[in-house]
Sequence to fold (748 residues):
Amino acid sequence: MEPRVLQELMGQRGVSLHVLPGQPGTYATLPEKLHPTLRHWLTESGIVRLYSHQAESYGSASQGNDILVTTGTSSGKSLCYLLPTLQACLEEPMGRALMIFPTKALAQDQMQKLEKLISGAELTVATYDGDTPKSQRSAIRKSANIILTNPDMLHVGILPGHEAWTKFLRNLRVLVIDEAHVYRGAFGGHVSWVIERLLRLCEWHGNRPQIISCSATIAEPVTHFQTLTRRTPTWINTDGAPRGNKEVLIIEATSEDESTQPSPNADAGRLLAEAVAHSVRSMVFCRARSSVEQVLRAARKELVKRDLDAQMVESYRGGYTVKERRQIEKDLFSGKLRGLATTNAMELGVDVGGLDLVILNGYPGSIASFWQQIGRAGRSGREGIALMIAHSDPLQQFLASQPELLFDQGVEPARASRENPVIIAAQLKCAAYERALLTSELEKWGETAQNVVSGLVEGGEFQRAYDQHFYPSHDPPARKVNIRTAGSSHVRLLLPNGNELGEMELWRAYREAFPGAVYLHRGESYVVSDLRHEIGEALLMPQEVNYSTSATVQAAIEPGVTIQQETLGPATITLCGATVTTQVTGYETRTLDGGGNLEEHELDLPTMTTQTIALRLSLPMNDFDATNPDQIKGLHTVEHVMRSLAPLIAGCDRTDIGSAWYLVSPDDFSASIYLYDVAPGGLGFCEEIFPRLHAMLLKGETMLQSCGCEDGCPLCCLSPSCESRNEHISKQAGLTLISRILASLGPG
Fold:
């Protein structure tokens, strides 16, 4: 499929084409010191030479160095850790290796690679995660040379019962941390402490394993490695893998009446079907689970119209059952599927073979993810095409109209919230349960950790004896700590016959599984008849519908403990804990293929209160006139702008961030704008935004100035999720307020 065809399919929208040049490969011979068995395995698999970075990784690792590899997508990073790992286990039969992957799908993919590479019975390799049958776990602990797992399982299923892992921990020689860029924000903070817990137990057994980590290209990768491991690695970043030319198309959002236009999900589905119909192996990346299902539905509908097999395309996302995930992975790896709609679960290094076309259904949330996703096109040195369909929202239109921000700005750093006291408190409880905390350890971990422990002692959650701190319970605290979100409660999605369709977090179900909500699953539609949040169940009825639903949410915010605070011109910005009370007051229906809103429905649901992290921008009374209509409009407009730009700054989806504005805040009577992490406990997004709020406002100023509308439109400052239906909005008033704040700061 040529770019010209794609442009024709998208109609008359603005399209920019960017050609990324390829490069020839740089190769090295197989290392002389390679174990004979490993050399045999490689040659039997057709690997008779290495890329230069693979050889460099092996050479440095053989000297005992900790290694960090940051090369491009499809550059063969797997061999950078597989070669040293297999070498270590072959040289020392009692040696063990632990490989940590962020997803089960990636672990399964790597497991298949290992099984294809390894022949004979020299080494035992196994996955150990939530899907591993309990009947097999003991044998794996005792005999497996190499174990593949994920941070969640390490946190809750291995470390709390480390006594059963004594042999493994004592002989652990290599620790692999793959896709390290994923571990950012609160999730990264938790993972850094999970790794700390693992390494302290190894040290207790007199062992110091080597660490090998691979990552997509991020800013400040060495600093990120140090945050995760508290070690300094040898950094390998010269990519020797060949690359074909790649054409990247950026398709602007439509400026026409939205009610007459197809939805981006319908566009992406139509393009996926077109590609599959021409035997073009394709993948569509979506930020939201609901978008994945809508894309699949649209693609299958189009294929049926053409009398083609609708099962050539599938969807893949969180919330599916284990059986469903494994079958989809099997069909994908075997080549049975020609097209896939997915979340970022497939953004990582899962090898799906060569992809001719990659479609980004909207901006993926970060520039790093943008490069990671388009990198899936044209794997193994082949040419490929990638395109991004911008949605009709301010941020995406801004990026589509100024694509140089995507190609020239550079990728973001991956910051892990290791010093977050909430995270530290949760993780130190887990660590103390596994082994009493020593005073020397607390001194090593820093002042924040020491203060947290003092608070836990005062609160009766720790007991102190001499220079040790104990967790006074036999109930593992890890069970209560969800390292991806503080909200550990889940809702089961049940059919009338009692079968379970999947599950989702309670906080997500509150917004997506309310009575009347449409839930799509593998292309089939269901309508929620009841949400029994108190027992964690939602009842779904199979029903064929051609619309989606979107909740209307009202939020009230009570600021809590201040974490950080700075002055930004006349404004004060504060990072703080917050109590957020939300209520779903209704929902809107919208046709799946576009055409605007159908109906609005009111709901009378109970409120939901969560503890999270918030960012507050406040203007004191003497700097803000609460009686001036233009200033009121400016405050509301800036709220919309900040929320729109949050994904560009924090690398999140717009649904991950909530917002609110107060003309007169109840606590200090200031005019305030709040951004808050929607997930309970926070996922680190507001922490990402806090030091970069100045940059956010600069981009907001540019976004408003560059829009050609007169005084506000959906492509610059109007929001479909505004609970006041975009009343009191003015582009010019928003520009005035932003400019006033920026002007007070002076140049730079």
About this structure: The longest helix spans residues 629-650. The chain has five domains: 3-21+243-252+262-408, 27-236, 421-480, 488-545, 555-743. The two ends are 46 Å apart (CA to CA). The longest strand covers residues 547-568.
